[in-house]
Structure formats: structure tokens, C-alpha cells
Amino acid sequence: MNYPNKKSSFNKNYINYGNRGMTLESDINVSNKYYLENDIAVIYKKPTPIKVVKVDYNNRINTKIKEAYYEIPSTTDYNGIYKGKYIDFDAKETKSKTSFSLNNIHKHQLDHLIKIKNHGGISFLIIKFSTLDKTYLLETKWLEEFLNSSDRNSIPLNFIKEKGFEVDYNYYPRLEYIKILDKIIKGEQYE
Known about the structure:
CATH architecture: 3-Layer(aba) Sandwich
Shape: globular
Number of helices: 5
Number of domains: 1
């Protein structure tokens, strides 16, 4: 079949690799949609707080933001509720095969995660080692312990494997992090 621009809709060299190359945030968003649609959890991606300064009102349909800036530093990527517990977390990716650089976490994000933990919520990082194709959930209490006991600028993968949980990938939900939250809820001991 040919379209008006004479291009064929069939490409014999096309190979469909499915979700290969999908980003961590996309995986989490798809999972959160599944959790919401199946009444399992209510977890949303937080919007980035921006202040719009200039807008081009050319017409109603083609309105464009011309200038905007970040109003305040954003805390974490996601928040919501699961089994009566407040959930708050950030998603991070690294290409490193051996560690996760602490430069990827801003101080205000870390402070926020610790406050959530201290008030009885469940806070954590989901860290994807993209080169290894492995994803881990690391609770804030372990992140905080590492920061208090080490002068390193990165968290070794072995520490993350030992203290964190590997997150399974599936078709739907894409990222099965809720199963890990069940484990945390059953054994959580917040001081």
C-alpha cells in the first residue's frame, strides 16, 4: 500500500524490538497506570513546578509557551498511596556497571526522602543500571545509612544488591515494584 507521499507502508527490513530502549520513567508510568486501573495503588508522576513568563497567543489551538523557568526545585518524581501508606520515590538511571553516583541525587531530594521516612511514609529510589539491564529499589533508610557511614561519592552496586531489592520486569505491569512494597510493609520498622 502506498500513501499520498508515495512511501510504502511496508518495510521488509523493519524489525520490531518491542519495548527495547524504553526509559525507566516510561516503565514506571505504564506500571502506575496498571496499578490505578486495577485498583491496586494510586501513584502519580509529580508535575515539574514551572512558572510561565511569556506566552504567544497566536490562536487558541496554537498557543505556545515562549519563556518559562523552574519555580522551585522539584522534590521527587512520584508519590501516592498504597495499602494506607504514603509512597514517595525518585527514579534514577545510570550507565555505570559498578556503582550509582551520588551526584544524581540533589540534597533537597535526599532531605525530602528522609522526611517522608521519618514521618512513617515509604520512601525510596528506583535505580536502573541501564548497561546491565537491572533495576533495584533501595529504601531511604539504606541510602541514609550509606551516606552516614561512607565518604564515597557513589554507592557500590554490591551494596545496592545486598540492601535493596531487584525489581522484576513483566509485560503488564512493566515494573513490578508493588510486590516489593508488600515486603517492606510486612517488615518495616521505622523509628
